[in-house]
Amino acid sequence: MKNKREMSWILYDVGNSAFATTIMAAVLPVFYYDVAAKGLDESLAASYWGYSQSIAVLIVAILAPVLGAVSDFSAAKKKFLMFFAFMGMIASVLLAFVGEGAYLLASALLIVGTIGFSGGNVFYDAFLPEVSNEDNMDKVSSWGFAFGYIGGGVLFAIKLLMILNYEAFGLPSTIAGTRLAFISVGIWWLIFSIPLLKNIKEERKQQTKKESSYIHIGFKRVGFTFKEIKKHKQVLLFLTAFWLYNDGISTIIKMATIYGRDIGIDSNSLIIALLITQFVGIPCTFFFGFLAGKITAKKALSFSLYIYLGIVALGYFMTSALHFYLLAICVGLVQGGAQSLSRSIFGKMVPGDRHAEFFGFYGISAKFSAIFGPFAFALVGQLTGSSRLGILSLIVFFIAGIIILRFVDVEKGKEEASAQTNPEVQTTIKT
Q1: How confident is the model at residue 427 (pLDDT cuts 50, 70, 90)?
Q2: Which of 2, 69, 91, 384 is the most exposed place for a label (fewest CB within 10 A)?
Q3: Distance (Å, rounded) from C-alpha 262 to C-alpha 259?
Q4: For residue 217, which of 353, 70, 364, 358 has the smallest C-alpha distance?
């Protein structure tokens, strides 16, 4: 990567990945359970975390089409990117000041931070065609993903030492190490955002004229794309399966740590296990790409979803840290593979002249699909008083997704895409 603009773009992913690993998946869930929700009934702590995740994703999903319209029609992508990025950074730092019993404040900061993280990514992704050429775009995109994994993992490892071996850092307690970990997320994110701020200049192209609000434009686009997708039966069938199993996957990512804490696994073991997931996922994602070439992407994806069924079952019966380590390894085996294969299968069935439109809808639908799993987990756990039954409820999402995926014919989907490809297709919507 000799291009300074490309490398600057990649480094931003190194920075914001710290939020995904520390705030969304690993450290904050334990802190929320042990400190912020102290005094609450144990099952309520897990349920409130699930509700907070659902609210955050719902807000992001509603904002996504509006932000997409802003990205396309505005000449200020960089300003919007940094506005949302600073929102996420500040929320991360403020989490260090959450005290015992302040679960409402912790939930609010999680929601604000998630909006900053996801909102910033809308504009970050939109910069890719500007920082790289068509021949190099796939490579730059994949390097961003890989460096994000590595960057998030490296900082996570440092924070793990800070939390487990707090005395070596001159800290008085594990809680103090955790609070410093939250502050480090904001600082790390800021540092790796500087190259983008310095080296990436927004293209001075003529601003597209608009005759209505961004809200109207954004949701009109979503409605238009949905009407078009209905003409592609195999795409719609695949999306239905994806909405279901992806909800299960995202719920496991977001709820695993607090669930483990709820059933009595110590916080140190939980954080170590998630570090294992981070690094197991890197080579296994490449392996599933190799496997797809041998047995087809659909079969490889189905295989990963069957493993997820085993993960849910293991989660239900889990009683010890060793079980959680095994679960973490299993998740690392399939997490990246399932997500990357889903994207590639969808891409094969999309008309060649409408990638941006269809993938935009794919991204929005993925956000909406991630709402119901955490909500179901939280609701079942609250009603039954058992988070074990909450995790078991995810089996429904995976089984339904697997069954529907069986009826997806990728080759027929390619034929439908070819038939619908039209060089004169309307690519803009009158506003």
Answers
A1: very low
A2: 2
A3: 5
A4: 70
